[in-house]
Amino acid sequence: MRRDDLDRLSSPTARRMAADYLDQSGDGVDASDVDLVEALDRSFVEALSAYDPDAAAARFLSLRFSGDGVDGRLPERIVEEVLAAFRRELAGAVPSASPADLQLDLVGFSRGSAVLHLAPAPVLSEPADRGGQPALLAADPVDSAVRSVADLHDAAEGQQDMRRFADRTDLLHAFVALTDALERHGVDLDVIWRSAAGTGRRATLTKLGRAHVRRNLERREAVDQYSFTGRVVELNINGSFSLKLGVARNSTRVEVDANGEERLLALGLRLGETITVTVLRAVEHTNLGIASKGRYTLLVVDSRSASS
User: Fold this and answer.
1) Alpha carbons 281 and 225: distance in angstroms, whole number
2) CB under 8 Å to 102, separation ≥6 — which residues?
3) Which of 23, 49, 145, 255 has its CA 20 to 30 A from that of 6?
4) 28-to-23, 123, 216 alpha-carbon distances in Å
5) What is the distance between the alpha carbons of residues 211 and 80, in angstroms, rounded to a whole number?
6) For residue 145, is pLDDT > 90?
């Protein structure tokens, strides 16, 4: 609970009660004691809702950095790289949310272990219903996103099986970018969140978690044989050609490596002709479920027909 929470209360009585509470208890609760802070905040919001149906705690998100290179100062490159990757994580966690829904503003910086204080854009609650009962707060995409990101960080830090995130490609790519940035700069990250309902969430990502991520990023290659038919739409000097596998404008295009410029020239392919090819398709997979784009290598041209 903080002094700036008072501005979120529309009722003068509620503001006066909150001010009295802070005067008696003080503002000095250590944010690192998340359980205590959450209990106080949740009780605070529940008690005030009887006086102010729209009562809500001011949401905050803190990113705490620690490490040998962090001593009350945070180099600009760390802020740029880590914050950009963290924002990508939030977007990947809730892909249905608009950028405006997940907007974060930098509202402060604390020395010591170096803490970035962020504030989401305000979210409005529904008015109380006609029976006088307070309505539920509107769904908060930031809350959903932070909790998903925290679950992922916890899985890494706890050395858990991370394949349950395999279908969340955007989130995983952003997470890998974040861990790379933290590893480059040798810093650990604490994410500390408090929602409008007063509930909190915290997750830590240290060297231990980053090492687990690297192990899960080890690649293994799978190679399969495929045959498909397409129209030649591009011949490349690097010894490859591209096939369009359908007639629609957005049909799939596949680049096939012909094993060098000389072999490509020997094939005598012409733009616009339709050919059937047999290829080897190689894809690299990781335990995180991240797969590389398939690479196609020509084995043989099975058939060809004149261009129209």
Assistant:
1) 6
2) 87, 90, 91, 94, 120, 141, 142, 145
3) 145
4) 11, 27, 41
5) 23
6) yes
Task: Kindly give, in sequence order, each residue whose CB lies less than 8 Å from that of residue 104, ignoring residues fewer than 6 positions away.
Answer: 61, 87, 90, 118, 119, 120, 142
Question: Nearest Cα to 303, choosing from 260, 269, 264?
Answer: 269
Amino acid (one-letter) located at 19: A
Residue 279 has pLDDT above 70, yes or no: yes
pLDDT, average across residues 267-271? 94
Q: Does residue 31 contact residue 201 with C-beta atoms inside 8 Å?
A: no
Locus of tokens 């977007």: 91
Q: Report pLDDT for 70.
A: 75
Cα–Cα distance between 16 and 93 in angstroms, integer? 38
Strand order in the sheet with 104-110: 104-110, 115-120, 60-66, 188-194, 200-205
Which residue in 224, 220, 218, 219 sits closest to 282, CA to CA?
Answer: 224
Mean pLDDT along residues 285-291: 82
Q: How many alpha carbons lie under 13 Å from residue 113 in its C-beta half-sphere?
A: 14
Q: Report whether pLDDT(286) > 70.
A: yes
Tens digit of each residue's pLDDT (9 = 90 or more) over 19-48: 655 555 444 444 444 444 455 555 555 555
Return d(Cα 9, Cα 22) in angstroms, integer.
Answer: 14
What's the confidence (pLDDT) of residue 53?
57
Amino acid at 194: R
Residue 108 pLDDT class (50, 70, 90 cuts): confident
In angstroms, the Cα distances linking 52 to 56, 122, 125, 130, 131 are: 9, 18, 12, 14, 14
